[in-house]
Amino acid sequence: MTDFEQLMAYQRETSALAQVAGRLGWDQETVMPRGAAGQRSEEMAAMESVLHERRSSARVGDLLETAQAPDAAGEAQLRDIRRAFERANKVPADLAKQIARVTSQAQGLWAQARADEDVAAFLPVLEQVVALKRQEGAALANGGDVYDAMLDDYEPGMTAVEISALFDAMRPRLVALRAAVLAQSSPRGVTGHFDEQAQMQLARRVAKVFGYDMSRGRVDKAVHPFSSGSGSDVRITTRTNGHDPFNCLYSTIHEVGHATYEQNIAPDYALTPLGQGVSMGVHESQSRIYENQLGRSRAFTGWLFTEMKAAFGDFGVADADAFYAAVNRVAKGHIRTEADEVQYNLHIMLRYDLERALMAGDLQVTELEAAWNDRFAADFGYGVDKPSNGCLQDVHWSVGLFGYFPTYSLGNVYAGCLHEALRRAVPDLDTQLAAGDTSGATAWLAENVQCHGGLYAPRDLIERAYGHDVSEAPLLDYLEAKFNAIYEV
C-alpha cells in the first residue's frame, strides 16, 4: 500500500473504535442498568485512552509527512487527520482519560439530580468537569483564547468574536418579534391525554416520512433526545409526555435531521474523517430545517393533523389551520428543547454567555444556579420555578460539551439560508409537503449538503448550497413573515 493508503487503513480502524465508544454512550443513555454506571465510566476511560493513543501516535505523524493524496477528497482527508493529530498531541493522554471517566460519571449524576431537583448533588462533579475542561482548553489554545479552542472542536474556524457579533445582530429583531407576538392572543393548544405508546408509533412513522432508514437505525427513549452514530448504524432517541405529543414528534423530526445527514454521506467516506457531519452548526442546520421550516410549515402540519386525529381522536383542535397555529404557538416556557422558533435562540444566548464565563473563570460553578436564574428572569421576564427548568435541564455541561451551545443558533442561521435556496429549487414544495411527501426537500438537502460529509469547510458548504454569503437575514425574515401572519401582527 502507498503511505496514503496505510494512513487511511489506520484511520478506519480508529474510526471504528470511536463508533464502538459512541455505542457505549448510546447504551448508557437508553438501556444501561443504573448500577453499571461506575463500571461504564471505567470502560469509557479505557476506550478514550486507546483512541487518544492512536490519534496521537508517531506513526500517524510519520505517514502525514509522506502521504500523497490522490485527489481533492484525499487532501481533505489529510487535512482532517492532521487536525486531529495535532489536537491529540496537545492534550495529555492522562487528561483525556480522566475527562472521559469523570464525564461518564457526571452524566448519571446529572440525570439523578435533575429527577430529584437537587442542584447541590450535581455541583461537585460539575466542578470537576469544568476544571478538567479548562485544562483541556488551555492545552488546545496554546496561549490563545481558551473558549475559541473549545468552540473549534464543534465548529472549525469559528470564533467567539464572530458568534457574539452574530448574536448582537439577531437579538434586537428577535426581542421585538417576541414582544409583538406575545402582545396578541395566543392560539389554543392541544388538550387531553395522548397515549405514549401511540406517540412512539406515530413518531416512527414520521421518522420514515422524513427519510430515516430504519434498517440502519432505531428510535428509542431517553431523558434528553439525541442522535448517535454514522454510516450504517445511526440511532436516535426521543421522549414522551402524556399531555404534550409535540415534544415527542418534533424531537423525533429534529433528531431524524441529524441522523439522515449521517446516513446520506457518500458511502466511500465511511469510517474516515469525511464520513461524518462537518460541524455541529451544519448538523444543526439539518435538524432545524427538518423540524421547523419543513415540519412546522402550514403544508406539512395539514398532513400531520390528519395523522394525529387517526392516532388520538379528538384532541381539542378544530381544523388544520388551528392545528398549524397550535404547533407554532409562542408561549412562556423554560425548556430550550420545547421553545418556539421565536424564542429558541434567546435560550442559546443565555447558555453561551454563562459557559464562556465558566471557562474564563469569571463565574464559579457554585454561582451557576443563581447566575442562570438571574439571567433568565432578565431575558424572559419571569423566574425559574425549579432546577429541572433551569440549570439542570440540559445534559451538555455534564458531559463536557463546552463550546457546543452556540452551534445551535449557528445551525438556525444556516437553516435559514438553506431554506431560502430550497424554496427556489423546489417551487412546488408546499404541494409535496401537504401530501406528506418530504422527498423533494430531503433529496435537495442530501445532494447539496449531506452527501459531502466533511469534504468542505462548514461555511463553504453552506455558501455553496445557498449561493451567497452566510447571513442571519433569511432566518429573521422567515420568522417575522411566519409569526406576523399567524398572530396577525
Automatic annotation (TrEMBL):
This is Metal-dependent carboxypeptidase. Keywords: Carboxypeptidase, Hydrolase, Metal-binding, Metalloprotease, Protease. The lineage of its organism: Bacteria, Pseudomonadati, Pseudomonadota, Alphaproteobacteria, Rhodobacterales. It is an enzyme of class 3 (hydrolase). Transmembrane segments: none annotated. InterPro entries: Peptidase_M32_Taq (IPR001333). GO terms for molecular function: carboxypeptidase activity. Broad specificity carboxypetidase that releases amino acids sequentially from the C-terminus, including neutral, aromatic, polar and basic residues. The keyword Transport does not apply. It catalyses: Release of a C-terminal amino acid with broad specificity, except for -Pro. It comes from Arenibacterium halophilum. The keyword Transcription does not apply. Its EC number is 3.4.17.19. Belongs to the peptidase M32 family.
